Amino acid sequence: MSEVVWTTIRLAGLTTVLLLALATPLAWWLARNKSWWKEIIAAITALPIVLPPTVLGFYLLIAMAPQSPLMAPFHALGIRTLNFTFTGLVIGSVIYSLPFAVQPIRNAFEAMGPRPMEVAATLRAGPLDAFLTVAVPMARKGYLAAAVLVFAHTVGEFGVVLMIGGAIPGKTQVVSTRIYQLVESMQFGQAHQLAAGLLAFAFAVLLALFLIERRTARTGL
Amino acid sequence: MITLTRRQQLFGLAAGASALAVGVRPAFAADTQVAVAANFTEPAREIAGLFRTATGHTATLTFGSSGQIYTQLSRGAPYEVFLSADPDRPSRAEQDGLGVPRSRFTYAIGRIVLFSKTPGLVDANGQVLTTGNFQHIAIADPAAAPYGAAAVQTMRKMGVYNKLKSKIVMGTSITQTYQFVDTGSAELGFVALSQVINLTGGSRWVVPATNHAPIHQQAILLHTSQANPAAKAFLDFLKTPAAIAVIRRYGYEAP
Predict the structure, then answer these.
(1) A2-219, superfamily in CATH?
(2) Does any CB of chain A come closer than 8 Å to the CB of residue B67?
(3) Which tens digits make up the pLDDT trace of B31-64?
(4) Is B177 an interface residue toward A (CB < 8 Å)?
(5) What sign for the dihedral angle of Cα A40, A45, A46, A52?
(6) What ipTM does the predicted assembly reach?
(7) What structural domains does chain B harbor?
Protein backbone atom coordinates (compact mmCIF):
# COMPACT_ATOMS: atom_id res chain seq x y z
CA MET A 1 0.00 0.00 0.00
CA SER A 2 2.87 2.40 0.74
CA GLU A 3 4.23 1.77 -2.76
CA VAL A 4 1.07 3.06 -4.41
CA VAL A 5 1.02 6.16 -2.16
CA TRP A 6 4.66 6.86 -3.01
CA THR A 7 4.01 6.57 -6.77
CA THR A 8 1.11 9.00 -6.41
CA ILE A 9 3.20 11.54 -4.49
CA ARG A 10 6.07 11.25 -6.98
CA LEU A 11 3.68 11.78 -9.89
CA ALA A 12 1.94 14.76 -8.28
CA GLY A 13 5.21 16.34 -7.13
CA LEU A 14 6.96 16.05 -10.49
CA THR A 15 3.86 17.31 -12.32
CA THR A 16 3.68 20.33 -10.01
CA VAL A 17 7.33 21.33 -10.54
CA LEU A 18 7.13 20.89 -14.31
CA LEU A 19 3.84 22.73 -14.60
CA LEU A 20 4.91 25.77 -12.59
CA ALA A 21 7.89 26.14 -14.92
CA LEU A 22 5.84 25.54 -18.08
CA ALA A 23 2.91 27.72 -17.06
CA THR A 24 5.04 30.76 -16.19
CA PRO A 25 5.87 31.99 -19.73
CA LEU A 26 2.40 31.03 -20.97
CA ALA A 27 0.65 32.87 -18.13
CA TRP A 28 2.89 35.91 -18.60
CA TRP A 29 2.17 36.04 -22.32
CA LEU A 30 -1.59 35.67 -21.71
CA ALA A 31 -1.52 38.41 -19.09
CA ARG A 32 0.52 40.90 -21.16
CA ASN A 33 -0.69 40.32 -24.71
CA LYS A 34 -3.43 42.74 -25.78
CA SER A 35 -4.77 40.99 -28.89
CA TRP A 36 -8.15 39.27 -28.82
CA TRP A 37 -6.89 36.06 -30.38
CA LYS A 38 -4.77 35.22 -27.37
CA GLU A 39 -8.08 34.03 -25.90
CA ILE A 40 -8.03 31.21 -28.47
CA ILE A 41 -4.82 29.98 -26.84
CA ALA A 42 -6.36 30.58 -23.42
CA ALA A 43 -9.38 28.49 -24.40
CA ILE A 44 -7.18 25.64 -25.66
CA THR A 45 -5.24 25.74 -22.39
CA ALA A 46 -8.48 25.53 -20.42
CA LEU A 47 -9.89 22.56 -22.39
CA PRO A 48 -8.94 19.92 -19.81
CA ILE A 49 -11.34 21.55 -17.31
CA VAL A 50 -14.29 20.77 -19.56
CA LEU A 51 -13.21 17.56 -21.33
CA PRO A 52 -14.01 14.29 -19.57
CA PRO A 53 -10.71 12.69 -18.49
CA THR A 54 -11.64 9.61 -20.50
CA VAL A 55 -11.62 11.70 -23.70
CA LEU A 56 -8.18 13.03 -22.83
CA GLY A 57 -7.04 9.55 -21.80
CA PHE A 58 -8.34 8.00 -25.01
CA TYR A 59 -6.52 10.55 -27.19
CA LEU A 60 -3.35 10.12 -25.15
CA LEU A 61 -3.60 6.33 -25.50
CA ILE A 62 -3.71 6.75 -29.27
CA ALA A 63 -1.11 9.55 -29.40
CA MET A 64 1.42 7.55 -27.39
CA ALA A 65 0.79 4.22 -29.15
CA PRO A 66 3.70 2.84 -31.24
CA GLN A 67 2.18 3.61 -34.66
CA SER A 68 1.39 7.23 -33.75
CA PRO A 69 3.39 9.81 -35.75
CA LEU A 70 4.13 11.62 -32.48
CA MET A 71 6.04 8.55 -31.28
CA ALA A 72 8.19 8.24 -34.40
CA PRO A 73 11.08 10.39 -33.06
CA PHE A 74 11.18 8.24 -29.91
CA HIS A 75 11.62 4.95 -31.78
CA ALA A 76 15.22 5.92 -32.53
CA LEU A 77 15.83 6.13 -28.77
CA GLY A 78 14.47 2.62 -28.34
CA ILE A 79 11.17 3.81 -26.86
CA ARG A 80 8.27 1.95 -28.46
CA THR A 81 5.42 3.57 -26.60
CA LEU A 82 4.92 5.96 -23.68
CA ASN A 83 1.75 4.22 -22.59
CA PHE A 84 2.24 2.13 -19.43
CA THR A 85 5.24 4.25 -18.36
CA PHE A 86 5.69 6.71 -15.52
CA THR A 87 6.89 9.28 -18.09
CA GLY A 88 3.63 8.80 -19.98
CA LEU A 89 1.65 9.46 -16.81
CA VAL A 90 3.64 12.64 -16.15
CA ILE A 91 2.89 13.89 -19.69
CA GLY A 92 -0.79 13.06 -19.22
CA SER A 93 -0.92 14.78 -15.83
CA VAL A 94 0.83 17.91 -17.12
CA ILE A 95 -1.79 18.29 -19.86
CA TYR A 96 -4.64 17.39 -17.54
CA SER A 97 -3.68 19.91 -14.84
CA LEU A 98 -2.38 22.68 -17.13
CA PRO A 99 -5.35 25.06 -16.60
CA PHE A 100 -4.98 24.79 -12.82
CA ALA A 101 -1.46 26.19 -13.12
CA VAL A 102 -2.00 28.79 -15.86
CA GLN A 103 -5.15 30.40 -14.47
CA PRO A 104 -4.00 31.48 -10.97
CA ILE A 105 -0.59 32.64 -12.24
CA ARG A 106 -2.14 34.59 -15.11
CA ASN A 107 -4.57 36.25 -12.70
CA ALA A 108 -1.71 37.21 -10.38
CA PHE A 109 0.28 38.76 -13.27
CA GLU A 110 -2.79 40.67 -14.44
CA ALA A 111 -3.57 41.97 -10.96
CA MET A 112 -0.03 43.34 -10.74
CA GLY A 113 -0.57 45.70 -13.70
CA PRO A 114 2.24 47.11 -15.92
CA ARG A 115 3.49 49.64 -13.34
CA PRO A 116 6.01 47.53 -11.33
CA MET A 117 7.77 46.39 -14.51
CA GLU A 118 7.97 49.98 -15.78
CA VAL A 119 9.48 51.08 -12.49
CA ALA A 120 11.98 48.22 -12.64
CA ALA A 121 12.92 49.28 -16.18
CA THR A 122 13.58 52.87 -15.11
CA LEU A 123 15.89 51.44 -12.45
CA ARG A 124 17.80 49.83 -15.32
CA ALA A 125 16.75 46.28 -14.62
CA GLY A 126 16.87 44.06 -17.72
CA PRO A 127 13.55 42.42 -18.77
CA LEU A 128 14.49 38.96 -17.49
CA ASP A 129 16.00 40.39 -14.32
CA ALA A 130 12.87 42.47 -13.67
CA PHE A 131 10.67 39.48 -14.39
CA LEU A 132 12.49 37.21 -11.94
CA THR A 133 13.06 39.76 -9.18
CA VAL A 134 9.85 41.79 -9.46
CA ALA A 135 7.05 39.99 -11.31
CA VAL A 136 7.52 36.45 -9.98
CA PRO A 137 7.83 37.47 -6.30
CA MET A 138 4.78 39.73 -6.66
CA ALA A 139 2.80 36.83 -8.10
CA ARG A 140 3.76 34.43 -5.29
CA LYS A 141 0.19 34.09 -4.11
CA GLY A 142 -0.77 32.89 -7.58
CA TYR A 143 2.14 30.44 -7.58
CA LEU A 144 1.15 29.04 -4.21
CA ALA A 145 -2.45 28.55 -5.30
CA ALA A 146 -1.28 26.95 -8.58
CA ALA A 147 1.07 24.55 -6.77
CA VAL A 148 -1.57 23.43 -4.29
CA LEU A 149 -4.25 23.02 -6.98
CA VAL A 150 -2.02 21.13 -9.40
CA PHE A 151 -0.71 18.77 -6.74
CA ALA A 152 -4.19 18.03 -5.42
CA HIS A 153 -5.72 17.72 -8.88
CA THR A 154 -3.05 15.23 -9.93
CA VAL A 155 -3.59 13.14 -6.81
CA GLY A 156 -7.31 13.09 -7.64
CA GLU A 157 -6.72 12.21 -11.30
CA PHE A 158 -8.35 8.96 -12.34
CA GLY A 159 -9.64 8.67 -15.88
CA VAL A 160 -6.40 9.55 -17.63
CA VAL A 161 -4.29 7.16 -15.53
CA LEU A 162 -6.87 4.43 -15.97
CA MET A 163 -6.78 4.78 -19.75
CA ILE A 164 -2.99 4.88 -20.25
CA GLY A 165 -1.51 3.42 -17.07
CA GLY A 166 -1.96 -0.34 -17.18
CA ALA A 167 -1.77 -0.54 -13.36
CA ILE A 168 1.89 -1.59 -13.03
CA PRO A 169 2.78 -1.65 -9.31
CA GLY A 170 5.47 0.90 -8.47
CA LYS A 171 5.23 2.55 -11.88
CA THR A 172 1.74 3.39 -13.06
CA GLN A 173 -0.48 2.22 -10.22
CA VAL A 174 -1.76 5.25 -8.27
CA VAL A 175 -4.10 5.59 -5.29
CA SER A 176 -7.23 6.45 -7.30
CA THR A 177 -6.90 3.54 -9.74
CA ARG A 178 -5.96 1.20 -6.89
CA ILE A 179 -9.21 2.07 -5.13
CA TYR A 180 -11.14 1.26 -8.29
CA GLN A 181 -9.31 -2.07 -8.60
CA LEU A 182 -10.02 -2.95 -4.97
CA VAL A 183 -13.73 -2.18 -5.33
CA GLU A 184 -13.85 -4.22 -8.56
CA SER A 185 -12.36 -7.23 -6.80
CA MET A 186 -14.66 -6.71 -3.79
CA GLN A 187 -11.87 -5.95 -1.31
CA PHE A 188 -13.96 -3.24 0.28
CA GLY A 189 -11.98 -3.04 3.54
CA GLN A 190 -8.75 -1.98 1.85
CA ALA A 191 -10.66 0.26 -0.53
CA HIS A 192 -12.18 2.06 2.47
CA GLN A 193 -8.77 2.70 4.01
CA LEU A 194 -7.36 4.30 0.87
CA ALA A 195 -10.55 6.20 0.07
CA ALA A 196 -10.75 7.62 3.60
CA GLY A 197 -7.11 8.68 3.33
CA LEU A 198 -7.80 10.47 0.06
CA LEU A 199 -10.85 12.19 1.55
CA ALA A 200 -8.81 13.45 4.51
CA PHE A 201 -6.08 14.63 2.13
CA ALA A 202 -8.54 16.52 -0.09
CA PHE A 203 -10.08 18.22 2.93
CA ALA A 204 -6.68 19.21 4.34
CA VAL A 205 -5.62 20.69 0.99
CA LEU A 206 -8.77 22.75 0.58
CA LEU A 207 -8.63 23.96 4.17
CA ALA A 208 -4.99 25.01 3.69
CA LEU A 209 -5.91 26.82 0.48
CA PHE A 210 -8.73 28.76 2.13
CA LEU A 211 -6.56 29.63 5.14
CA ILE A 212 -3.86 30.97 2.80
CA GLU A 213 -6.43 33.06 0.96
CA ARG A 214 -7.78 34.42 4.23
CA ARG A 215 -4.31 35.34 5.39
CA THR A 216 -3.37 37.04 2.12
CA ALA A 217 -6.65 38.92 2.08
CA ARG A 218 -5.76 40.37 5.50
CA THR A 219 -2.05 40.90 5.25
CA GLY A 220 -1.22 40.71 1.53
CA LEU A 221 1.10 37.75 2.43
CA MET B 1 -50.68 33.78 -22.26
CA ILE B 2 -52.57 31.74 -24.80
CA THR B 3 -56.19 30.89 -24.18
CA LEU B 4 -57.42 27.69 -25.72
CA THR B 5 -60.94 27.05 -26.91
CA ARG B 6 -62.80 24.19 -25.29
CA ARG B 7 -62.32 22.17 -28.46
CA GLN B 8 -58.54 22.73 -28.51
CA GLN B 9 -58.33 21.72 -24.86
CA LEU B 10 -60.18 18.49 -25.53
CA PHE B 11 -57.99 17.81 -28.53
CA GLY B 12 -54.86 18.31 -26.44
CA LEU B 13 -56.17 15.97 -23.78
CA ALA B 14 -56.86 13.27 -26.35
CA ALA B 15 -53.41 13.66 -27.86
CA GLY B 16 -51.81 13.38 -24.42
CA ALA B 17 -53.79 10.29 -23.57
CA SER B 18 -52.87 8.53 -26.79
CA ALA B 19 -49.19 9.39 -26.23
CA LEU B 20 -49.41 7.77 -22.83
CA ALA B 21 -51.09 4.72 -24.31
CA VAL B 22 -48.22 4.27 -26.76
CA GLY B 23 -45.71 4.57 -23.94
CA VAL B 24 -47.34 1.92 -21.80
CA ARG B 25 -46.82 -1.57 -23.14
CA PRO B 26 -49.56 -4.15 -23.03
CA ALA B 27 -49.11 -6.73 -20.27
CA PHE B 28 -47.82 -9.47 -22.56
CA ALA B 29 -44.80 -7.52 -23.89
CA ALA B 30 -42.48 -6.05 -21.27
CA ASP B 31 -38.96 -4.70 -21.02
CA THR B 32 -36.30 -6.15 -18.77
CA GLN B 33 -33.08 -4.63 -17.48
CA VAL B 34 -30.14 -6.94 -18.07
CA ALA B 35 -26.61 -6.31 -16.76
CA VAL B 36 -24.03 -8.07 -18.94
CA ALA B 37 -20.35 -8.82 -18.37
CA ALA B 38 -18.27 -6.87 -20.91
CA ASN B 39 -16.87 -9.93 -22.71
CA PHE B 40 -20.41 -11.01 -23.67
CA THR B 41 -21.35 -7.65 -25.26
CA GLU B 42 -21.69 -8.74 -28.90
CA PRO B 43 -23.52 -12.04 -28.40
CA ALA B 44 -25.83 -10.41 -25.84
CA ARG B 45 -26.86 -7.77 -28.39
CA GLU B 46 -27.60 -10.43 -30.97
CA ILE B 47 -29.51 -12.59 -28.51
CA ALA B 48 -31.56 -9.58 -27.36
CA GLY B 49 -32.56 -9.01 -31.00
CA LEU B 50 -33.66 -12.64 -31.41
CA PHE B 51 -35.42 -12.48 -28.05
CA ARG B 52 -37.48 -9.54 -29.21
CA THR B 53 -38.52 -11.26 -32.42
CA ALA B 54 -39.37 -14.50 -30.67
CA THR B 55 -41.22 -13.21 -27.60
CA GLY B 56 -42.17 -9.55 -28.22
CA HIS B 57 -40.37 -8.66 -24.99
CA THR B 58 -37.42 -6.32 -25.10
CA ALA B 59 -34.19 -6.47 -23.11
CA THR B 60 -32.31 -3.28 -22.22
CA LEU B 61 -28.65 -4.16 -21.86
CA THR B 62 -26.07 -2.52 -19.62
CA PHE B 63 -22.43 -3.54 -19.92
CA GLY B 64 -19.65 -3.49 -17.36
CA SER B 65 -17.16 -5.71 -15.62
CA SER B 66 -18.74 -8.37 -13.44
CA GLY B 67 -17.21 -6.80 -10.34
CA GLN B 68 -18.60 -3.39 -11.16
CA ILE B 69 -22.07 -4.79 -11.86
CA TYR B 70 -22.05 -6.77 -8.63
CA THR B 71 -21.04 -3.69 -6.62
CA GLN B 72 -23.87 -1.72 -8.24
CA LEU B 73 -26.34 -4.53 -7.59
CA SER B 74 -25.46 -4.71 -3.91
CA ARG B 75 -26.19 -0.99 -3.71
CA GLY B 76 -29.64 -1.23 -5.22
CA ALA B 77 -29.12 -1.04 -8.99
CA PRO B 78 -32.42 -1.90 -10.73
CA TYR B 79 -31.12 -4.75 -12.93
CA GLU B 80 -33.40 -7.77 -13.17
CA VAL B 81 -31.04 -10.25 -14.83
CA PHE B 82 -27.28 -10.55 -14.29
CA LEU B 83 -25.05 -12.26 -16.86
CA SER B 84 -21.73 -12.54 -15.08
CA ALA B 85 -18.37 -13.65 -16.42
CA ASP B 86 -17.90 -15.97 -13.45
CA PRO B 87 -19.81 -18.20 -11.01
CA ASP B 88 -18.59 -16.36 -7.88
CA ARG B 89 -20.59 -13.16 -8.17
CA PRO B 90 -23.92 -14.78 -9.07
CA SER B 91 -23.53 -17.23 -6.17
CA ARG B 92 -22.69 -14.34 -3.90
CA ALA B 93 -25.80 -12.50 -5.14
CA GLU B 94 -27.77 -15.63 -4.26
CA GLN B 95 -26.30 -15.76 -0.73
CA ASP B 96 -26.87 -12.04 -0.19
CA GLY B 97 -30.55 -12.46 -0.98
CA LEU B 98 -30.32 -10.36 -4.17
CA GLY B 99 -30.76 -13.32 -6.50
CA VAL B 100 -33.63 -15.77 -6.81
CA PRO B 101 -32.52 -19.12 -5.29
CA ARG B 102 -31.88 -21.92 -7.79
CA SER B 103 -32.23 -19.60 -10.80
CA ARG B 104 -28.47 -19.67 -11.35
CA PHE B 105 -26.99 -21.55 -14.32
CA THR B 106 -23.98 -21.55 -16.64
CA TYR B 107 -24.94 -19.98 -19.95
CA ALA B 108 -21.51 -20.04 -21.63
CA ILE B 109 -17.98 -21.28 -21.06
CA GLY B 110 -15.41 -18.70 -22.05
CA ARG B 111 -12.18 -19.22 -23.94
CA ILE B 112 -9.13 -16.98 -23.96
CA VAL B 113 -6.84 -16.21 -26.84
CA LEU B 114 -3.35 -14.72 -26.98
CA PHE B 115 -3.75 -12.04 -29.62
CA SER B 116 -1.51 -9.55 -31.38
CA LYS B 117 -2.18 -6.99 -34.12
CA THR B 118 1.23 -7.86 -35.57
CA PRO B 119 1.10 -10.76 -38.04
CA GLY B 120 3.47 -13.55 -37.14
CA LEU B 121 4.23 -12.38 -33.60
CA VAL B 122 2.08 -14.98 -31.89
CA ASP B 123 2.79 -18.53 -33.09
CA ALA B 124 0.38 -21.45 -33.09
CA ASN B 125 1.66 -22.84 -29.77
CA GLY B 126 2.16 -19.65 -27.80
CA GLN B 127 5.93 -20.15 -27.76
CA VAL B 128 6.30 -16.35 -28.01
CA LEU B 129 5.68 -16.35 -24.24
CA THR B 130 8.84 -18.37 -23.70
CA THR B 131 11.04 -16.24 -25.96
CA GLY B 132 9.56 -13.09 -24.41
CA ASN B 133 10.41 -10.94 -27.40
CA PHE B 134 8.13 -8.03 -26.48
CA GLN B 135 7.83 -5.16 -23.99
CA HIS B 136 4.24 -5.34 -22.81
CA ILE B 137 1.69 -8.09 -22.48
CA ALA B 138 -1.85 -7.05 -21.55
CA ILE B 139 -4.17 -9.07 -19.33
CA ALA B 140 -7.37 -8.22 -17.48
CA ASP B 141 -6.96 -7.62 -13.74
CA PRO B 142 -6.90 -11.22 -12.41
CA ALA B 143 -8.38 -10.18 -9.05
CA ALA B 144 -11.49 -8.80 -10.71
CA ALA B 145 -11.89 -10.57 -14.05
CA PRO B 146 -11.97 -14.35 -14.62
CA TYR B 147 -10.40 -13.87 -18.06
CA GLY B 148 -7.42 -12.28 -16.32
CA ALA B 149 -7.23 -15.13 -13.82
CA ALA B 150 -7.25 -17.64 -16.69
CA ALA B 151 -4.41 -15.73 -18.37
CA VAL B 152 -2.30 -15.91 -15.21
CA GLN B 153 -3.05 -19.64 -14.82
CA THR B 154 -1.98 -20.23 -18.42
CA MET B 155 1.32 -18.40 -17.92
CA ARG B 156 1.96 -20.26 -14.68
CA LYS B 157 1.25 -23.60 -16.33
CA MET B 158 3.78 -22.77 -19.05
CA GLY B 159 6.26 -21.74 -16.37
CA VAL B 160 6.70 -18.22 -17.77
CA TYR B 161 4.70 -16.15 -15.29
CA ASN B 162 7.60 -15.02 -13.09
CA LYS B 163 9.69 -14.16 -16.12
CA LEU B 164 6.89 -12.13 -17.72
CA LYS B 165 5.60 -10.49 -14.56
CA SER B 166 7.40 -7.18 -15.14
CA LYS B 167 5.96 -6.95 -18.67
CA ILE B 168 2.33 -7.36 -17.62
CA VAL B 169 -0.02 -4.39 -17.98
CA MET B 170 -3.51 -4.71 -16.59
CA GLY B 171 -6.81 -3.52 -17.98
CA THR B 172 -9.68 -3.03 -15.56
CA SER B 173 -11.90 -5.16 -17.77
CA ILE B 174 -11.41 -7.44 -20.75
CA THR B 175 -12.67 -4.56 -22.94
CA GLN B 176 -9.88 -2.26 -21.81
CA THR B 177 -7.37 -5.08 -22.16
CA TYR B 178 -8.42 -5.41 -25.78
CA GLN B 179 -8.01 -1.61 -26.25
CA PHE B 180 -4.39 -1.90 -25.12
CA VAL B 181 -3.76 -4.63 -27.69
CA ASP B 182 -5.82 -2.97 -30.42
CA THR B 183 -3.88 0.30 -30.24
CA GLY B 184 -0.65 -1.71 -30.35
CA SER B 185 0.48 -0.16 -27.05
CA ALA B 186 0.86 -3.68 -25.76
CA GLU B 187 2.30 -5.92 -28.50
CA LEU B 188 0.11 -8.78 -27.41
CA GLY B 189 -2.40 -9.75 -24.76
CA PHE B 190 -4.80 -12.34 -23.45
CA VAL B 191 -8.31 -11.38 -24.51
CA ALA B 192 -11.65 -13.17 -24.82
CA LEU B 193 -12.00 -15.30 -27.94
CA SER B 194 -15.39 -13.64 -28.54
CA GLN B 195 -13.65 -10.28 -28.99
CA VAL B 196 -11.47 -11.35 -31.92
CA ILE B 197 -13.40 -14.23 -33.47
CA ASN B 198 -14.82 -12.03 -36.25
CA LEU B 199 -11.50 -10.32 -36.84
CA THR B 200 -9.10 -11.28 -39.59
CA GLY B 201 -5.39 -10.46 -39.56
CA GLY B 202 -2.97 -10.15 -36.69
CA SER B 203 -1.73 -13.33 -35.08
CA ARG B 204 -3.27 -15.50 -32.40
CA TRP B 205 -3.06 -18.58 -30.27
CA VAL B 206 -6.37 -19.92 -29.03
CA VAL B 207 -5.36 -21.17 -25.58
CA PRO B 208 -6.39 -24.81 -25.08
CA ALA B 209 -9.15 -25.04 -22.48
CA THR B 210 -6.99 -27.43 -20.46
CA ASN B 211 -4.49 -24.66 -19.66
CA HIS B 212 -6.75 -22.96 -17.13
CA ALA B 213 -9.78 -23.58 -14.93
CA PRO B 214 -12.91 -23.39 -17.09
CA ILE B 215 -14.46 -19.94 -17.23
CA HIS B 216 -18.04 -20.76 -16.29
CA GLN B 217 -20.11 -17.70 -17.06
CA GLN B 218 -23.21 -17.80 -14.91
CA ALA B 219 -26.52 -15.98 -15.09
CA ILE B 220 -28.96 -15.31 -12.29
CA LEU B 221 -32.47 -13.90 -11.95
CA LEU B 222 -32.68 -11.08 -9.44
CA HIS B 223 -35.48 -10.38 -6.98
CA THR B 224 -36.12 -6.98 -8.58
CA SER B 225 -37.72 -8.91 -11.48
CA GLN B 226 -40.58 -10.33 -9.42
CA ALA B 227 -43.40 -8.52 -11.23
CA ASN B 228 -41.77 -8.75 -14.66
CA PRO B 229 -42.31 -11.86 -16.79
CA ALA B 230 -39.80 -10.62 -19.39
CA ALA B 231 -36.85 -11.19 -17.03
CA LYS B 232 -37.53 -14.87 -16.54
CA ALA B 233 -38.34 -15.17 -20.24
CA PHE B 234 -34.93 -13.74 -21.14
CA LEU B 235 -33.14 -16.28 -18.94
CA ASP B 236 -35.19 -19.10 -20.45
CA PHE B 237 -34.41 -17.79 -23.91
CA LEU B 238 -30.67 -18.07 -23.19
CA LYS B 239 -31.15 -21.87 -23.07
CA THR B 240 -32.90 -22.13 -26.44
CA PRO B 241 -31.05 -23.58 -29.48
CA ALA B 242 -31.26 -20.18 -31.21
CA ALA B 243 -29.37 -18.47 -28.38
CA ILE B 244 -26.90 -21.34 -27.98
CA ALA B 245 -26.07 -21.09 -31.70
CA VAL B 246 -25.13 -17.42 -31.21
CA ILE B 247 -23.09 -18.25 -28.10
CA ARG B 248 -21.15 -20.95 -30.00
CA ARG B 249 -20.60 -18.71 -33.00
CA TYR B 250 -18.79 -16.20 -30.76
CA GLY B 251 -16.35 -18.85 -29.65
CA TYR B 252 -17.87 -19.86 -26.34
CA GLU B 253 -18.58 -23.43 -25.45
CA ALA B 254 -22.17 -24.15 -24.55
CA PRO B 255 -22.68 -25.91 -21.23
Answers:
(1) MetI-like (1.10.3720.10)
(2) yes
(3) 999 999 989 999 999 999 999 999 999 999 999 8
(4) no
(5) positive
(6) 0.79
(7) 30-109+215-249 (3.40.190.10), 112-206 (3.40.190.10)
